[in-house]
Amino acid sequence: MQTTFDNALMGLRATGASVDIRDLVEFLARHGAEEGKLLATY
Ligand SMILES: [Fe+2]
Fold first, then answer.
1. pLDDT at 11
2. Tens of pLDDT along 1-42?
3. Domain ranges within the chain, ordered by starting residue
4. In angstroms, what is the span from residue 11 Cα to ligand 1's centroid?
5. Total Cβ atoms within 10 A of residue 5
6. Under DSSP, is residue 42 helix (H, G, I), strand (E, B) or coil?
7. What's the CA-to-centroid distance between 19 and ligand 1, angstroms?
8. Helix, strand, or coil here: 12?
9. What is the CA(38)–ligand 1 centre distance, in A?
10. pLDDT given for residue 34 in this prediction
11. DSSP string spanning 13-31?
12. How far is the CA of 33 from the centre of ligand 1 (A)?
């Protein structure tokens, strides 16, 4: 999961994506990481 978002963020930076789009992807990456930790406890 983390690698997928890391690759997405690298691609967004390389293509000059807007700050809003990069912020959204960073938010999704953070959410995925946090939710993954919670799910691992179940
Ligand atoms: Fe979720």
1. 87
2. 567 778 888 888 899 999 999 999 889 989 988 999 999 998
3. 1-6+18-42
4. 23
5. 17
6. coil
7. 22
8. helix
9. 10
10. 93
11. HHTT--HHHHHHHHHHHHH
12. 9
Task: Please state the φ and ψ torsions of residue 5, each to the nearest 5 degrees.
Answer: -70, -35
- Rounded distance between C-alpha atoms, residue 34 and residue 6, angstroms: 15
| pLDDT recorded at residue 1 | 55
Phi, psi angles (nearest 5°) of residue 11? -65, -40
Cα-to-centroid distance, 21 and ligand 1 (Å): 18
Distance from residue 16's CA to the centre of ligand 1 (Å): 27
CA 35–ligand 1 middle distance (angstroms): 6
pLDDT at 10: 86
